[in-house]
Structures are given as structure tokens and as C-alpha cells.
Specification:
four-stranded antiparallel β-sheet; 156 residues
Amino acid sequence: MDLRNNHILVTWSDGFRGGVQSFKTDGKLLWDSYLQQRMSRPLYVAVDREGTVFVSDSHTHFIFKFHENGQFVKKFGGPGISGGNLNRPRGICVDSSGHILVVDQDNQRVVIYTGRGTYVRHIAIHGTGSLTDVAVGPEGQLVVSSSSSLTVFSRY
């Protein structure tokens, strides 16, 4: 949900194609990404303080960036095992500095990008099961969940 305007963001996929849609609280469709930028398996959504929407697609290995009105801006990440590349991105969030944090499931790490999609660095997280989600706590903690545990880092 975009808390700035109470718009509800929903990802959808039939396994081969997918997208993200924005709805008003009364159910009225505001926009649908499908016709502009086709995704395959979009899973998670995050919104920054300006209303920019970020969507992780676990099949294409990209993060898709949309303007608050649904206009496609760019995609970043892409398949790979190092640097800013991703292998099955999952959970995604935006921190108070505007950095995009993404769970890179098969590479067992959290990748950090600028709000423009430039790779900053990554944090390796091993031995915790299959990584699924990421969040930033109220005091700046990094919280990463997996299939078998929850890991909290006081700083990142």
C-alpha cells in the first residue's frame, strides 16, 4: 500500500507474464503496468517517499521502477551472481535514505541500490534457509526473513 495516498498495489502473474496494478480503496483501477512493461513473475512491491514504485520479478531477475502514475521508468539488476546482478529477487523495501534493499534469494544476500537503481553494495546472509523478505526497523535495523529464521542486524 502507498501510505501517501492509500493506493493499493497488487502484483499478479500467471507464471509466464505478470504486472503490477494500482487501485483506489474503493476498488477502482488507477493503472496497470502490463501494457507498458511486461514482467514474468512479479512478487514484491515497495514505494519510496516520492511515490516511486519498485517491483521485484523473480523470473526475469530485474527490479522494475515505475513513476507514481504507473509510467515505466527503468529496470535494473538483471541475471547474475555478483555486484548489482540478481538471482531470483524476492522481498524489497526502501529505507529512510531512499536506498532500495532487495533479497537476492539464490545468491543468499541483500543487495542495496540507490533510488536510481545504481548498485551500492550487498550483505551476505548464509545458513539461514531460503531468504524471502527484507524490512528496515524503526531504529534503522535491517530485518531479513527466511524459510527458517528471522535475522536482525542493528546496523547495515
